[in-house]
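user: can you give me the structure for this one chain? C-alpha cells are fine.
assistant: on it. calling the predictor now.
[tool input]
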Amino acid sequence: PPLLPPSPPVGANGDPHLVLAHGGKADFRGTDKGIYNFLSAKNLSLNVMTEFADFYLHDTDHPRHKLVHGSFLTQAHIVARTGGGRTVRASYWASKIGPLNIGWMNATIDRQQAFALGPHTTKVVDDVSLHMDYSSLHVTTGEWELAVMPQAVQRSVAGPVRRIDVQMTPRVAESKFSVPPHGVIGQSWDGDNKAVFGEEDEFPVRGEYTTSAMAEGAVEGVPTDYLMSSPYATDFKYSRFGLSHASPRDVSKLTGRVGAAAPLAGNGAGVMEKEIELLAGQVA
C-alpha cells in the first residue's frame, strides 16, 4: 500500500483546531479571554487563553473568501513540578511577539524573582528544561515535550494580530504514563488506540460565519469543566496534576464519532491552520 504522509503532531492551531491523539479532530472556540486546561498530567499542566477575533479567510478575489467571527489561542501558561520538588511556572504571550517574530517567555521557580528567556536560550531546573529557539518555546519533562509557536493572524479584521499554536508530544509510551493525562486534548491519550472526532465548524463556501464548536463529543463533561480560575491554576474537575493514580477517560461515554487510529498518529497532539479547509472544500 502507498505510504501515508505523517499525521500532524497533536495540539491546537489556527482558529483553534485540535489534533487529538490517535488521529481524532475537533474545533474549540472557547470564550473571550477564557483560560482552559488543554493538558493535565502528573506534575505538568498546560493552560491556554482563547480570544475572540474577526478575520477574513482567503483574499477578496478568492472564490472561498469569507468573514469569520472566530477565536485564537493567545497565551500559554505552563506549571511543572520538578523531580526535586520545585515548581516552575512559564508563560508565553502572543501579544509580546514583535514584527520580527522574535519570541520570549517569562518564568518563575518557586517564589524566586521572575526571569525572561529570549531567543536561543535554555534554563534547566532539575528534570525540567525550558528552551527558546528563535521564536518557539519548548518545555521538556520526563514524560512530555510541549511546544508553543507564534503565528501572525492573516487578514485580521478585529482582535489579536498574533496568535499561538501549541503541540504536545509524549516522551514515553502511552502505557508508561505515571498517570493517564486529561485536559481538553490530553484526555485523548486514553490507551484505547481509537480516533475520537468531536464537533467541527462547518464553514460556508463564502459569506460570513461565526464559529461555535467546543469539541463536543470528544471531551468528557462540558466545556466549562475545563475553564481555569487563573493562568497557573492546576485544579479542575479532571485534574491529574497532583495525583498518583487515575483511570483514563471512559470512551464509551463520549458521543463523538469513534474510528480506527490513523497510521502514525500516536505521537503528538495540538492545535491546524483552517486554511486546510480550502483543501477539504475542494474534496467535499
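assistant: here you go. The longest strand covers residues 66-81. The two ends are 24 Å apart (CA to CA).
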